[in-house]
Structure formats: structure tokens, C-alpha cells
Design brief:
Elements: H1 2-7, H2 12-23, H3 26-36, H4 40-65, H5 73-80, H6 83-95, H7 97-117, H8 121-125, H9 128-147, H10 152-181, H11 203-206, H12 209-216, H13 232-261, H14 271-286, H15 292-323, H16 343-358, H17 367-381, H18 386-397, H19 413-433, H20 445-476
Helix pairs in contact: 2-13, 3-12, 3-13, 3-14, 4-13, 4-18, 4-19, 5-6, 5-18, 6-15, 6-20, 7-9, 7-15, 7-16, 7-17, 9-15, 9-16, 10-13, 10-14, 10-15, 12-17, 12-19, 14-15, 18-19
């Protein structure tokens, strides 16, 4: 009896806090402010109501219906449809990490630049070829570390995650309070005018939605905890709504704090790369502690990125090779070394990421544009895995009699299907619109077209490779 009671020990506040540390970070605020300025505050409120809340509650029902599946999206798809579709879900989950892995070495180098040089000149002054060459070396070193099965990085990642959460909260508190305590001048004019916060809903605006969707994604990681929650039908949705409120408050106050430090009407080109450090440097000077906040954030970001890099080389690959039907994966990819590492899978990862590190440097002029482009590519590719969550939910609404759950998001199957379809459509729309480059075309037309071509070719190539592997498996997997 006591074991059963302990198994349902999670309460709504545990769910909210767990979700917050899983999906949220300071860089989400910086990156979207760089795209939209203070108008992003309205966008945050809209994305929370129209996307994030339905997304998290759909995940809650899926997690509750398939408790034995451990929360894996591909497991949901397999149960609701077939092994082939489940393979493509597992493939998507793995392959969207390729651009993510390509950017982490850049983030580590920017962090180290601020830690040892105290400024962001590295991203402005360095040649793309030199930086990407160093990025490739860093990435390959981490492939080697991950191939040794270094488990200590998991604990480093947990510590860095808590530290990053603390730095995000510290930034909001200091940023909002700075003008009142230190009497520094507010950077953005007319912050009391409502028109400052209203977006202009044009083509440029819609190309930035993918970054918002990217920022609030990943709630499916919370799904295994639905059935560990006391009174799940009431407390899980309450926890998810509180989570949405926490994220919204963090996003709104964070954006407001940046608006006090950075002029929303004249956003620096390097804000995505250097913005968090510049903001902490400004706050450190305002509170007379020098570069203390900068050093703390640089160390935190370095550790978090290093852990994420090593873990993301291994974990998504394990999910693909361990969860997908073996008849769709070439036998050679399943080969393991003495440490249980899928060594050929690592080689495939290394080749794809290396291509994505080096090729863009040949056609994108300026390290800052390259950094911003790779971040935007992540916002196009990473949400592709969320599509499978919404597809699974739509399929679940058609089989409610077969798959019961303690928690129901929407009891009417038609309404539920419609909400799932809306989230699927919005995600796909954001990914497609995100392909339009964010730079000014007239300033560098050749770089603009090169970025557009890469934004279209990269997702298509990654999807195509997922279609090719089953054909190879069919020819080579002969017993």
C-alpha cells in the first residue's frame, strides 16, 4: 500500500517545476527578443495560449494512456499505428539533433571567449572557416568522449541545468529591478506605450514563429510523470497550466528586462550570440560587481553545452537503434563495441554533423551571420519531432475506446482531433516559414540565397536519408 502511495508522490507543483527546468532557459528570451524586439511579449502570450498549453495537455493524455511505453513518441506511434511509422518517428527524433550538435561547439567557444577575454569580439572578428574548423575539432573530441561511455557528463548536465535555471531567474530579478535601484537609463524609448508591444503581422513576423515554437517545445519529456502524479486527472493539468504561467511570466519579464538594457528599435546583429553576456555585463556594472555575472554565466553555459553535446550524441541514437524495428535499420549501424556503443551509428552522426559544420562556412559571409543561421536552422528542424506528438494525439482521439487514461485533455474525440490538427498545422507552418533567411537580402544577396538553399535542402536531405536506410536494410539484413 505504501509503495503504491509513494508511486503517486508527484504533486502539481512538482510537475510545474520539473517542466520548467526541462523546457525553459534564458536563451529562449534572448533569441526571440533578437527576432521581434519588445513586440515579442504579445507573441509569448499568444504562443502560450494557442500552442503551449494544448501541447502540454495532449502530452499528458498520451503519457497517461501509454504508461508502459516510458513516454517515447515512437512507442506511442507504434502502438497506435505500425512499426514503419514508428521507425520514422524515431528517425526524426534522432536526426533533428544534427543541427543542434553542429551549433554546440560554437556556443562553447563564445562562452570561453567571454570567460577569458571578457568580451564578444570572437564572434564578430573571427573567420567562419577558422571558427568552424575549431568547432569540428571540439565536436570530434566529444564524439570520442561519448564513445568511451563517460557517464559523469549526465551529472554535470544536471548541475549545469540547475545553475542555468538560477541564472535565468537572477537575470529577470536584476533586469527588472536595475532601473529602480541603480537609476540607469532605460534603453528602449516609449516602454509605457501599448503600441510598442504590438507585432506587425507581416511576412517578416511569420518567419520568426519557428523560434517561438522551438523555445516552448520538448514537453513530451514530462509524459512519464503523469501516472506518478497524485490525482492525475486534476493535478497534472493544473501543474501544466502553472508551468505555462511560469514560462509566460519568465518570457514576459525577461523580454521586458532586455528592453530596459537593449534598445528594441536598434537590436545589435550579434544579440543571439552575445546578448546574454552583454546583459549580465551591464547588470554587473550597474550593481558594481564587475564581470562576476558574466563569468558565472559563461561557466554555466560552457558546462551545460558540453554535457548537452556529449549526451545528445548518444541518447537520441540509442533511442533510434534501440526502439525502432530492426528490419528498417541496416545491420551495420547496430554493431556495438565492447562498451556497448553503436560505433557505426556514431560514425554516421560524425559525418552528418561535420558536413553541417563545414559546408555553411563556405558560403555564409561573417561568423555572426553563420551563428544566427545555424540557430535559425535548429528552429526549423527541431520542431519537426513535435509533429509526431500531434499525429499520435490525433490517432489516439480515434481510438479512445481502446486506450483509456487517468487523465483526459478533451473528452470529445472530434474536438480533440481538431486541437491536435491545429497544433500540427501551426508547427508545420512555423517550420516552413522559418526557412526564409532573417538577414537583409539587399545587403548580401548571394549569402541570402545560400542560406535559403541550405534551409530547404538540409531538412529534405535529413528526411531523405531516413527513407534510404530501410531500403539499404532490406538488401543487407539477410539472415
Amino acid at each position: 500500500m505504501s509503495d503504491a502511495k509513494n508511486a503517486k508522490a508527484f504533486r502539481w507543483w512538482n510537475i510545474a517545476l520539473l517542466g520548467f527546468t526541462t523546457v525553459w532557459g534564458l536563451n529562449n528570451v534572448i533569441n526571440n527578443f533578437a527576432n521581434q524586439g519588445l513586440a515579442v511579449i504579445t507573441s509569448w502570450i499568444l504562443i502560450m495560449i494557442l500552442y503551449f498549453v494544448p501541447y502540454t495537455l495532449m502530452v499528458g493524455q498520451l503519457g497517461s494512456a501509454f504508461q508502459e511505453a516510458g513516454g517515447g513518441v515512437s512507442s506511442w506511434i507504434r502502438t497506435l499505428s505500425n512499426n514503419k511509422l514508428a521507425y520514422f518517428a524515431a528517425w526524426t527524433y534522432w536526426v533533428v539533433h544534427v543541427p543542434y550538435l553542429a551549433q554546440k561547439p560554437q556556443i562553447i567557444m563564445v562562452s570561453l571567449s567571454w570567460l577569458f577575454k571578457g568580451n564578444g569580439s570572437f564572434i564578430k572578428d573571427s573567420s567562419p572557416i577558422i571558427v568552424q574548423g575549431l568547432s569540428l575539432i571540439i565536436f570530434l573530441v566529444f564524439v570520442w568522449i561519448a564513445s568511451k561511455g563517460a557517464s559523469t557528463l549526465n551529472s554535470i548536465g544536471s548541475i549545469a541545468g540547475i545553475a542555468m535555471f538560477t541564472m535565468s531567474m537572477l537575470f529577470i530579478i536584476l533586469g527588472v529591478s536595475a532601473p529602480f535601484i541603480t537609476h540607469v537609463q532605460i534603453a528602449t524609448p516609449n516602454m509605457t506605450d501599448i503600441h510598442t508591444y504590438i507585432p506587425k503581422f507581416d511576412l517578416q513576423y511569420f518567419t520568426t514563429i519557428s523560434m517561438l515554437v522551438f523555445a516552448v517545445g520538448g514537453a513530451e519529456k514530462i509524459s512519464p510523470y503523469v501516472n506518478k502524479t497524485k490525482n492525475a486527472s486534476r493535478e497534472f493539468p493544473l501543474g501544466m497550466i502553472i508551468l505555462a504561467v511560469m514560462v509566460a511570466v519568465s518570457a514576459v519579464l525577461g523580454s521586458f528586462a532586455i528592453g530596459m538594457i537593449v534598445n528594441s528599435n536598434h537590436i545589435p546583429a550579434d544579440l543571439m550570440a552575445n546578448g546574454a553576456y552583454q546583459a549580465f555585463q551591464f547588470l554587473g556594472n550597474s550593481f558594481h560587481v564587475g564581470n562576476l555575472f558574466v563569468w558565472a554565466f559563461a561557466i554555466t553555459n560552457t558546462l551545460a553545452s558540453a554535457a548537452a553535446l556529449a549526451i545528445s550524441i548518444d541518447a537520441p541514437l540509442r533511442m533510434l537503434l534501440g526502439d525502432a524495428d530492426k528490419k528498417y535499420i541496416p545491420k551495420a549501424l547496430l554493431k556495438k563495441n565492447k562498451r556497448g556503443i553503436a560505433i557505426n551509428g556514431y560514425k554516421m552522426t560524425a559525418i552528418l554533423v561535420s558536413i553541417l559544420i563545414i559546408v555553411p562556412a563556405l558560403g555564409i559571409n561573417g561568423m555572426n551571420d553563420l551563428y544566427n543561421w545555424l540557430l535559425n536552422l535548429n528552429s526549423i528542424v527541431m520542431p519537426m519531432r513535435y509533429l509526431w506528438v500531434f499525429l499520435a494525439y490525433m490517432m489516439l482521439t480515434k481510438q479512445l475506446d481502446k486506450y483509456k487514461s487517468d487523465y483526459m485533455f478533451v473528452k470529445n474525440r472530434y474536438v480533440g482531433f481538431g486541437v491536435g490538427l491545429w497544433a500540427f498545422f501551426l508547427t508545420a507552418f512555423a517550420c516552413i516559414m522559418g526557412m526564409v533567411p532573417k538577414m537583409n537580402m539587399s545587403q548580401d544577396p548571394s549569402s541570402w540565397w545560400f542560406q535559403l538553399a541550405l534551409n530547404i535542402i538540409t531538412p529534405l536531405a535529413l528526411i531523405l536519408l531516413g527513407l534510404i536506410l530501410p531500403a539499404i536494410a532490406k538488401r543487407t539484413n539477410v539472415d
